[in-house]
Amino acid sequence: MARYIGPVCKLCRREGMKLYLKGERCYSEKCAYTRRPYPPGQHGQGRIKLSEYAVRLREKQKVRRIYGVLERQFSGYFQEANRRKGRTGEEMLALLERRLDNVVHRMGFGSSRAEARQLVRHGHVHVNGKRLDIPSYVVRAGDRIELTEGARKFKSVLASVGGADKRPVASWIDVDRAAFTGSVKGVPIREDLNEPEIREQLVVEYYSR
């Protein structure tokens, strides 16, 4: 599957907020958005009033980029959420949060979702005692997640665990970073999600137009 491989700092500047796509760098003074908090390009510092459609589009793009999924897959999450009984926007966020790569990131084993995704893809993550290399796998309540013995020695993993205190811990997850293990306590609700700047209703309006 194709994936964006360009400079991710430009994505934060385009969306007008930190998306935390580069892990520890995003928490430092080297963060590109901290130094240049305006869109990239020659006219980036100019002020442009966005149409209602553009506002909804930007919100959709922002959420998609936070979780690192492509348009077709993101649209699939919306369609699945739309078939559920709850509020569509909240159901969509719950599905995105329960992706295995996101859970590994939330547990502190990857400083970014991209780093966590790489751990999963390379077979360094076990779910309920079995290796699982599908980043989009949706975890369920009671699932136990752990890193392989080899992954526990990776410099990137140790650095991520060492800096995990900077990142909020998801209330719907239990984690023992010293043992490189964690478990899923339940399905997250909107109040459990550490993404206060997401306006999911705009995403619903975008796809419902």
UniProtKB/TrEMBL annotation:
<protein>
    <recommendedName>
        <fullName>Small ribosomal subunit protein uS4</fullName>
    </recommendedName>
</protein>
<keyword id="KW-0699">rRNA-binding</keyword>
<comment type="function">
    <text>With S5 and S12 plays an important role in translational accuracy.</text>
</comment>
<dbReference type="GO" id="GO:0006412">
    <property type="term" value="P:translation"/>
</dbReference>
<dbReference type="InterPro" id="IPR022801">
    <property type="entry name" value="Ribosomal_uS4"/>
</dbReference>
<dbReference type="GO" id="GO:0019843">
    <property type="term" value="F:rRNA binding"/>
</dbReference>
<dbReference type="InterPro" id="IPR036986">
    <property type="entry name" value="S4_RNA-bd_sf"/>
</dbReference>
<dbReference type="GO" id="GO:0042274">
    <property type="term" value="P:ribosomal small subunit biogenesis"/>
</dbReference>
<dbReference type="Pfam" id="PF01479">
    <property type="entry name" value="S4"/>
</dbReference>
<comment type="function">
    <text>One of the primary rRNA binding proteins, it binds directly to 16S rRNA where it nucleates assembly of the body of the 30S subunit.</text>
</comment>
<dbReference type="Pfam" id="PF00163">
    <property type="entry name" value="Ribosomal_S4"/>
</dbReference>
<dbReference type="InterPro" id="IPR001912">
    <property type="entry name" value="Ribosomal_uS4_N"/>
</dbReference>
<dbReference type="InterPro" id="IPR005709">
    <property type="entry name" value="Ribosomal_uS4_bac-type"/>
</dbReference>
<comment type="similarity">
    <text>Belongs to the universal ribosomal protein uS4 family.</text>
</comment>
<keyword id="KW-0687">Ribonucleoprotein</keyword>
<dbReference type="GO" id="GO:0003735">
    <property type="term" value="F:structural constituent of ribosome"/>
</dbReference>
<dbReference type="InterPro" id="IPR002942">
    <property type="entry name" value="S4_RNA-bd"/>
</dbReference>
<feature type="domain" description="Small ribosomal subunit protein uS4 N-terminal">
    <location>
        <begin position="3"/>
        <end position="97"/>
    </location>
</feature>
<feature type="domain" description="RNA-binding S4">
    <location>
        <begin position="98"/>
        <end position="160"/>
    </location>
</feature>
<dbReference type="GO" id="GO:0015935">
    <property type="term" value="C:small ribosomal subunit"/>
</dbReference>
<keyword id="KW-0694">RNA-binding</keyword>
<keyword id="KW-0689">Ribosomal protein</keyword>
<comment type="subunit">
    <text>Part of the 30S ribosomal subunit. Contacts protein S5. The interaction surface between S4 and S5 is involved in control of translational fidelity.</text>
</comment>
<dbReference type="InterPro" id="IPR018079">
    <property type="entry name" value="Ribosomal_uS4_CS"/>
</dbReference>
